[in-house]
Amino acid sequence: MNAVEQEILKVIVFQLADKEYAIPLSNVQGIEKLMHITRVPKTEKYVKGVINLRGVVTPIIDLRERFGIPVSDNEETTRIIIITTDEMEVGFVVDSANDVIDIPVNAIEQQPEVVGSNEVDFISGVAKLENRLLILLHLDKVLNPAE
Amino acid sequence: MELNQYLEMFIEESKEHLQSCSDNLLELEKNPEDIAIVNEIFRSAHTLKGMSATMGYEDLADLTHKMENVLDAIRNEKILVTPDVLDVVFESVDHLEAMVMNIADGGDGKRDVSNTVAKLKRIESGEPVQQNAVELAAAEVATTTLVEQNSPELDYDSFEKTVILQSTEQGFNAYEISVTLRADCLLKAARVYMVFDILEKNGDVVKSRPTVDKLEEEQFDQDFKVALITQTSVDELHSKILKVSEVEKVTITQLTKDKFITSASAEAATTIEEVRENENPIVPQQKGQEESVSQKTSSPTKHATSKTIRVSIERLDILMNLFEELVIDRGRLQSISTEVKHAELNETVERMSRTMGDLQNIVLTMRMIPIETVFNRFPKMVRTLSRDLKKKINLEVIGAETELDRTVIDEIGDPLVHLIRNSVDHGIESPEVRRANGKPEEGNVTLRAYHSGNYVFIEIEDDGAGINRDKVLNKAISKGIVSKEIASTLSDKQINELIFASGFSTADVISDISGRGVGLDVVKTTIESLGGNISIESTEGVGSIFSIQLPLTLSIISVMLVEIEQETYAIPLSSIIETSIIKNSDILNAHNQKVIDFRGKVVPLIFLEEIFEVPRKEQIDQDYHSVVIVRKGEKLAGLVVDSFIGQQEIVLKSLGNYLTNIFAISGATILGNGKVALIVDCNALMK
């Protein structure tokens, strides 16, 4: 969003179920393979727990759970995307993450059409690119537990 | 101008200078005759003034300047050092501190100090600050303001004046040189540089107008003035400067002592006698200067040992995190090398392990700072308090060099302030009472810090009245803190502990300083939240000792690791009393609560598995349970776990900003295998 004035927004593309999502590259600190997650009791269901990210205890959110998508078994391609915002550092569990692409800013529609399901609340826009449809996540809303 | 980058440095340095001012002022109070101390204070104030003016904090600079004037007068023995004068100077330092704090908090450093400024002015002009102030001062001080107006061409501040005067006495000449550049001069800054270059080769530049910075930025018209101390003759200087191209005119006037001190103003005539007298003080002062020179030769060694750089605590945390990663990798490497059985590899891994051990110590001690940073504000505080309360108190500080983790240092200040106020207010009696009780009028408060084991002890000892057992008991009963029945069974120690109960205050008159009854319980809570504890020893009529025990660091704690199914949890050793294995048949039911009989006490059982909702693969009925008996205050509880792993020192980590307020979890740590283990908050489990 802070890149609205810019022509191009660099994003990381990841998959959840059959949809493709995007997070601005500037918010992504890294992508990790699935590692041991320590469960933290009495937290929301989508909070998988915490991991040791090079000495920093980092909370992990399962985006499938967060968006109400049925959980799949961990597969080879499952990744943890480490997100940093001003206030916090968290990891998102996603089905796979492999693309960094440039989205022309004018391809982003701020008001998403009906995408269906629960994740509507977490979307800041939709980018249409040739034959792909990328859903841009609204990080603050995803990270705000009292949604 | 981009001053922001200097702001932090400015704040830190200002604090240091103010601290040095306070320290030296206290020193001065003990030795009012020692001019070297005044010089020291003056130097700090002067630097502070310069810095704050540069940073654009006019109020700060202004007040410092006023204070400086007074100090200067003291230095020149125009004002006697009296407690009243010092009060005002202390007050100024307090204001300055408040301003700096305000700047540090993002404010503009403005503050209404007119009252203090007025007082400073009154001192400076020799009027009594308070009615009972020394009248003598009045006559003596008259010249201070005078000298201010006296400066011939350039305005010299007191320090520069001293320098010039001393140099002339030592056979140097002081000149004021006025240089005019040609109107068509293009590279003014370059010419200035060349002139300064010549001057500095021939002597010392004391002052210039405009300032050197402005000259370098070409912020002047065509002429500038410089004060120079030199042995070179006027003619030589003149011709040398004229050799610089584009210099149009050079005027050199000599600064003689007389010309320098006296002024043409009419007032001077009446006080000229005194001015003459004042030339004498310069001689002893020079001696003082020499003394301080000899001190200086010794002081660099002192400074050399404490050469420091500032590193933000975040960076140290990062260093620590990375280091832990290394420790984990080292573990892996060790196990690989034992498998491979390669002699050279083994040796290298062992060497690396040892080096890392040393490294770990260094990383940990890097976060330690001397408790001095907290202690050094107390002498001034006690001084102010004792004057307010009209008591005579001597504060002794022992072990200020004792080192503690930065995080503990940050937290411990307020509780200590409270305890010291408490000792000064409630502990030490008034001089009359002390005399009547056959004690010396001056009370002693001792602040002591020392290491012992993995703990730091801080003690506040006073030789005051001590705790009056009956008074405390009556108060506690009247406030409903204990019942009469229980009261009679309490031991002395337990009674002393009562003063930490909330809503307790023994002072007959509630004073401004302490005694609103909100203090000591807060102190206790704060200290306990730091993982420490506080105890009192008191003998009525003889005095009290408040003793605080604190962990060396908050970032490393000893824990007991336990296992529940596949999950590992850490229970802080500080809350554990003991561990035990109990039989199923030992578990009793009381009011839907499973309890055990533990050494004659009924202890409720808490099944961590239920609390933490640990997923069980299969339900196993065990005949035996592993129980960790934990304590919160007087209460006990038994935490039921699957098995004990063992005791370990761990590094405490937060769960981050996303996960806050997790029930019964106080934090996390990273285990040797690289996995995260959660730390159990026993206090939350025992409501």
UniProtKB/TrEMBL annotation, chain B:
Its EC number is 2.7.13.3. Residues 275-306 are annotated as: Disordered. Keywords: ATP-binding, Chemotaxis, Kinase, Nucleotide-binding, Phosphoprotein, Transferase, Two-component regulatory system. Residues 1-103 form the HPt domain. It comes from the Bacteria. It catalyses: ATP + protein L-histidine = ADP + protein N-phospho-L-histidine. GO terms for molecular function: ATP binding; phosphorelay sensor kinase activity. The modification Phosphohistidine is found at H46. Residues 291-306 have a biased composition (Polar residues). GO terms for biological process: chemotaxis. SUPFAM superfamilies: ATPase domain of HSP90 chaperone/DNA topoisomerase II/histidine kinase, CheW-like, CheY-binding domain of CheA, Histidine-containing phosphotransfer domain, HPT domain, Homodimeric domain of signal transducing histidine kinase. Residues 304-554 form the Histidine kinase domain. The keyword Transferase applies. Residues 556-687 form the CheW-like domain. This is Chemotaxis protein CheA. It comes from Lysinibacillus halotolerans.
